[in-house]
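Tip: read the tokens left to right.
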């Protein structure tokens, strides 16, 4: 109890003295994140890491809510009411139920502001997770920051960002576990995006137990996309035996997207330590990401030029 209180006091002191815009550059903050974030201050820490308050414009959220429904409102309501499942995870459906109608209202406000976003099942689960911890308007601005800083391209029409990040995951898997990579990507011919899309576009909500999930977000909001790749590699390691024994794509994806709790390390801290131990150079991932984005953009432009000339071409993600 005393250790918990001390961590809480450290965080409150840091939040009051450090600049949110510099939070993701602070080694002290990262060390505190690894040590643990008390649930009592977690949403404040997430707001700090995303610099959510800097985006907040008083009155805007209320005005956006007044605009009401959007074309996908009915679909969102069905998702929140569990008419469709995400990963088949009943626990996550409870998360949405606990978050209440705020999920739909918040997403409607966001889509009224950013109408070009392509709605997917991952969005209400990210919002639901935020609403479990933060007041609705605070959750809205944290959500905007997460989208703008990290994952908005995943939901943008015509974007290849998810394919790029999935390819980076596949490359890292080949380095970390060649046998599993061969089984999944070569022998079974599973597209990396089929593996990664449910993970990345939901930030692992519905895949990991709640106490493991919040620790994932603690570090993701500091490290960014490379941490999502790390977590994916860790999940592969946790269910490696089952994956190698699977004989169908459906079975493989089911085990990857909803790994049994018995396969996970015994505590969230053990889990986080394992994720941290994964062989992956974050800076290299960031550099490769920029390079691949540029290559894909060129391929897209060349493909459009060929189509304009009366021929068709497909885009293949670069391997190096």
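Filled-in amino acids:
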């Amino acid at each position: 109890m005393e250790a918990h209180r001390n961590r809480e006091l450290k965080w409150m002191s840091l939040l009051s003295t450090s600049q949110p815009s510099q939070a993701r550059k602070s080694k002290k903050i990262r060390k505190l994140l690894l040590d643990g974030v008390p649930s009592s201050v977690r949403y404040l820490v997430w707001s700090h890491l995303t610099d959510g308050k800097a985006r907040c414009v008083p009155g805007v959220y209320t005005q956006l809510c007044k605009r009401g429904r959007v074309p996908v409102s009915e679909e969102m309501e069905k998702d929140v009411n569990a008419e469709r499942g995400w990963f088949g995870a009943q626990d996550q459906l409870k998360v949405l139920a606990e978050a209440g109608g705020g999920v739909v209202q918040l997403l409607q406000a966001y889509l009224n502001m950013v109408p070009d976003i392509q709605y997917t099942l991952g969005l209400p689960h990210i919002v639901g997770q935020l609403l479990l911890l933060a007041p609705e308007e605070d959750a809205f601005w944290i959500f905007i920051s997460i989208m703008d800083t990290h994952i908005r391209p995943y939901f943008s029409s015509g974007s290849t960002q998810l394919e790029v990040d999935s390819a980076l995951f596949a490359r890292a898997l080949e380095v970390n576990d060649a046998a599993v990579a061969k089984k999944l990507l070569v022998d079974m011919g599973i597209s990396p995006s089929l593996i990664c899309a449910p993970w990345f576009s939901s930030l692992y909500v519905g895949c990991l137990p709640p106490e493991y999930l919040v620790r994932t977000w603690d570090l993701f909001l500091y490290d960014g996309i490379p941490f999502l790749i790390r977590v994916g590699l860790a999940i592969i390691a946790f269910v490696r035996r089952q994956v190698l024994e699977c004989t169908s794509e459906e079975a493989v994806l089911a085990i990857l997207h909803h790994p049994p709790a018995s396969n996970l390390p015994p505590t969230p801290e053990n889990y986080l330590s394992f994720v941290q131990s994964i062989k992956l150079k974050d800076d290299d991932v960031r550099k490769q990401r920029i390079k691949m984005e540029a290559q894909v953009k060129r391929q897209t432009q060349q493909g459009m030029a060929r189509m304009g000339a009366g021929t068709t071409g497909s885009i293949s993600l670069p391997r190096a």
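The mean pLDDT is 88. The radius of gyration is 20 Å.
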